[in-house]
Design a protein that fits this description.
This protein is of the alpha/beta class. It has 13 helices and 14 strands.
Length: 390
């Protein structure tokens, strides 16, 4: 492959993470709930990982609940808060650009009779805290707003929303799956009561994540069984995976500034070169208020799915950000929310860089992408009628 540019989708497991995990697949295979030495060795490894994850976000170790990933963490936060609320009428606030782990959960809550408000965002992809405040009602029990968007990378005003939630005495959940390892995280500064993380976005293994739950937060478990994770999430712990998440969190904290500066320079090299080389192209979302590793570009008159396939054939991995349902490709809800048309949304690609990305990969990509775009536009009846945009 010439260039893997889909790190917002998933990352490779860092070699140091893999090395930390390996002993717990075979030699140190004890059940962390067992009282014998093998079990207690596993328990100590989990406790150490819990400290590392807490350290990444400025939390206490006791406030970390391990899950199977970001999706489960989001589900536990939303359904757990709603189930624990004693209010007879319940209202939840979220935004129109959340990950489907939150949006689909909110839709399910609506089917259960919960009122949900979906606050819009501007054309820059950023929610206005005043709109969140305006959506509050006496029945509001939870606000859920992501930190960094997975498709366009925009950073949301979490601290301001956190103050609004605190003033209203409403729980505040933040999906930080795409900001962990890219932005400094401090749950107290952000003012969140719950925060979701996923290991495979920060060079850890797939199938493990965590939910931060501030001490004193009323959260009802959604699974039932044993008393694992302080009665929050039952089931024998994925010791190797948790160890991997812990090591990944440790590395993310240590390398955050170094990674961000280098990756931002490479992202800008990619973006600026493509903007200069290709006509009828634009950047989606706020170019200043976004994470360092991602850019989302509309290539007018060139279908996104065809671009992904064409680039893949040339060794470039990227993403449209579109969801596929029942064989029908739908335009990205995020791009539609910031005002793009169906055709524009379907002609957009997300490029996301990571720790292993090199200058050579970027230079190879910017040599290939314009040729593929030009070839596809030549086949499109829309190209001649599309006005240039920048």
């Amino acid at each position: 492959m010439s260039a893997y540019l889909d790190y917002n989708s998933t990352t490779p497991v860092d070699r140091r993470v893999l090395e930390a995990m390996l002993p717990y697949f075979a030699g140190a295979f004890g059940n962390a709930s067992s009282i014998h030495s093998a079990g207690q060795h596993a328990r100590a490894a989990i406790d150490s990982a819990r400290e590392s994850v807490a350290g990444l976000i400025g939390a206490k170790a006791a406030e970390i609940v391990f899950t199977s990933g970001g999706t489960e963490a989001d589900n536990l936060a939303l359904f757990g808060i709603v189930a624990a609320s004693v209010k007879s009428r319940k209202h939840v606030i979220t935004t129109s650009i959340e990950h489907h782990a939150v949006l689909n959960s909110c839709q399910q809550l609506e089917r259960q009779g919960i009122e949900v408000s979906y606050v819009p965002v501007g054309s820059d992809g950023v929610v206005d805290p005043a709109d969140v405040r305006s959506a509050l009602t006496p029945d509001t029990i939870l606000i859920s707003v992501m930190h960094a968007n997975n498709e366009i990378g925009t950073i949301q005003p979490i601290e301001e929303i956190g103050r609004i939630a605190a003033e209203a005495d409403v729980y505040f959940h933040c999906d930080a799956v795409q900001s962990a390892g890219k932005l400094p995280l401090d749950v107290n500064r952000l003012g969140v009561d719950l925060l979701s993380l996923s290991a495979h976005k920060i060079y850890g293994p797939k199938g493990v994540g965590a939910l931060y739950v501030r001490s004193g937060t009323a959260l009802a478990p959604q699974f039932f069984g044993g008393h694992h994770e302080r009665d929050r999430r039952p089931g024998t712990e994925n010791v190797a995976g948790i160890v991997g998440l812990g090591k990944a969190a440790e590395l993310a904290r240590a390398l955050l500034n170094e990674d961000a500066a280098r990756i931002a320079a490479l992202r800008n090299r990619l973006e600026n070169t493509l903007l200069d080389a290709i006509s009828m192209i634009r950047v989606n979302g706020d170019r200043a208020r976004r994470v360092a590793n991602a850019t989302n570009l509309t290539f007018s008159a060139a279908g996104g799915e065809a671009l992904v396939i064409g680039l893949d054939l040339q060794g470039i991995a990227c993403s449209t950000g579109a969801a596929c349902s029942s064989g029908a490709v739908e335009p990205s809800h995020v791009l539609m929310a910031i005002g793009l048309s169906h055709d524009e949304a379907r002609s957009s690609l997300r490029f996301s860089l990571g720790r292993p990305t090199t200058t050579e990969e970027i230079d190879e990509a910017v040599a290939i992408i314009p040729r593929v775009v030009e070839r596809l536009r030549a086949l499109s009846p829309l190209s001649a009628a599309t006005a240039p945009v920048r």
